[in-house]
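Sample pair:
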Amino acid sequence: MKNIKTYVISFCGVAIAMNIVLGIITSALGIPLYLDTLGTVLTAVVLGPLPAVIVGGLSNIITGLLYSVTDIPFCLVNMAVGLIVGLAVRKRKFTFVTAVILGVILSFVCPAIGTPIGIYVYGGLNGTFSDVLVLSLVQGGSTIFQASFLRNVMSNLIDKVGTLIIAWELIRLMPMSFFENFGKNKNELI
């Protein structure tokens, strides 16, 4: 019998590394698809909500310690992604439609959690071109929360829907034997 615990710990380690590396690369490239929760989503689908919450939290904590301390408070966003996707996949198969719907839901949930953190940490601005939109909305009478939230929803629509679709495709392409290492049946997940 294979040692499932070893596979779970190894998978979680790879998922954390994936979140960190993809987050840093996409941030450096300045593309709107951040992919810094892809490992969390994959963990949620394969292993469930609790391991995904741990992967999400540790990803931001490690990134914060290695790269930028301001990433640490955003672990709450990454943890919420793991929890929501993990719970949803327990109830429904992870299909293309499920991925898109979860992506849209997370496009609003993540900014609801991350916007107050971003206002506290960065004053609502993130140092990108989208700050022009935020400042324009504030000058037009919106609060910094409203302006920052709107900007975050728009960027999250691209990021979260894209991340969930990529995760669905990766899960779909994984061989059945991969899931057997975790005592899972691929046909029950997708």
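The chain has nine helices and no strands.
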